[in-house]
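Morning, I've got a small favour to ask if you have a moment. I owe you a coffee for this, so here goes:

…
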Amino acid sequence: IAAAANAWARGAAALPKPWQPQKPVLPVEGMRNILITSALPYVNNVPHLGNIIGCVLSADTFARYCRLRNWNTLYVCGTDEYGTATETKALEEGLTPQEICNKYHAIHADIYSWFDISFDYFGRTTTPHQTRIAQDIFRRLLARGFLLEDTVEQLCCESCQRFLADRFVEGTCPFCSYGEARGDQCDKCGKLINAVELKNPQCKLCRSVPVVKATRHLFLDLPKLEEQLEPWLEQSLARGDWTPNARYITRSWIRDGLKPRCITRDLKWGTPVPLDGFQDKVFYVWFDAPIGYLSITANYTQHWERWWKNPQQ
């Protein structure tokens, strides 16, 4: 209180001059460097107040606070544009997935600009940088033995002549009996689901009953990481400010044992898989989309690694 009263008595002239970062904003030796990201909003809708409050507003508030503290701050975000949600919207509107992305990216950018959200850069995930970085991470995982190949049973709609990934199939959750579970998870009980486990599955496009067929896919070998993950997780839970929900879900995954996680899909819209025998597949959006934070920064500056591979600053 005494320090605040003293600062007030000295007046505004005694305050430090506002920090004016270089453009592009890059880490500066000896300064506190802050990188802020908002959860990437899906590109297949028009944002409303709930999206802004739940997605970008808290990060914007923090970014403004950091700048007022004269911390060197970069705040990036962008639209998440791959995945079945985009394909579904494209079918609804009679457009191509790329046209849907172009249309709704512009709408998102305009709305956030109208609300004066203080992004340093608002990008998107359908860029050459996204493809390059995602495929590079994939190749590194492959070279280090963290990927598995397996044949899986998958739902196929014979009417639409396509395998049904994620949002293209709907049915009853085998765990809690929720009637609108998707092909990758149940939004009611939170459990991960393989689409073939759904009861009473239906193709969301034509409402016909799909059949089960075999197809080859690639998996992250998560069990291989379990030994390293557990001690790291205990330290992180002790030091970090995890929400009760995050703690519960994470502990339940560890308790039940990590399972290999499929990272490819039989779709056309997505980042191509750069491996012989898998050229007709794309990466699963939850493998691909988090890499968007890196690629959006790379679209902002060629020196993006100074933010993402620079723990010293």
